[in-house]
Amino acid sequence: MLPRGASSMPPPPNSAPYSPPPRVTLPSGLEILRTFSGAVIFLEILFGTIVWILVASTGVPLPVLQGWVMFVAVTAWFLSIVFLSVFLFGYANRVAVNWNQADFIFHGATFVFYFGAFLLQAATTSLHHFPRKFNSTTQESILSGREYNISIAASV
């Protein structure tokens, strides 16, 4: 027998562990371009394209170093376009993700990869004056004067 006022139903579950999906505070559509994050993504796309063109226009004396620079430039460029498209086309409102945190992680990871690529490109540029010996009679520098200037621009 149950005491007076008691029911045989269990109490409702605690609602504390169940929280609503995170709210998107970054705007969708063209308004994303007016935010700091949108401007940074746009600059990543712009400068990634420039680095891609500059590295591709030089001879590649050290394929391991400049191959990584090219990989970072192309991959970051592509992922920046995808990330920007998520906000431009309103997909951010359909997916329950903490977009502020995702934005922070995306820019942080992109910075780390671009900084590593910068170091490798600067290392390639600094080897400009070292000769590359093809045979016993001829010596040629690793980068020509034109390629040296392009490599400096890509490093910057």
UniProtKB/TrEMBL annotation:
Primary location class = membrane
GO terms (molecular function) for this protein are: structural constituent of myelin sheath
| Top-level taxon of origin | Eukaryota
- One Pfam match: MARVEL
Q: Which PANTHER family match?
A: MARVEL-CONTAINING POTENTIAL LIPID RAFT-ASSOCIATED PROTEIN, PROTEIN MAL2
Q: Where is this region: Disordered?
A: 1-20
Where is this protein found?
Membrane
Q: Where is the composition biased (Pro residues)?
A: 9-20
Gene from which the chain derives: Mal2
Annotated GO biological processes are:
myelination
Domain MARVEL, chain residue ranges per copy: 32-156
- Species the sequence originates in: Catharus fuscescens (Veery)
**Any idea what this protein is called?**
MAL2 protein
Q: Which UniProt keywords apply?
A: Membrane, Transmembrane, Transmembrane helix
Task: Answer yes or no on keyword Transmembrane.
Answer: yes
The keyword Transmembrane appears for this protein: yes
UniProt GO cellular component terms: membrane
Supply the InterPro entries for this chain. MAL (IPR013295), Marvel (IPR008253), MARVEL-CKLF_proteins (IPR050578)
What is the topology of this protein in the membrane according to its UniProt annotation? Multi-pass membrane protein
Residue intervals passing through the bilayer: 36-56, 68-92, 104-123
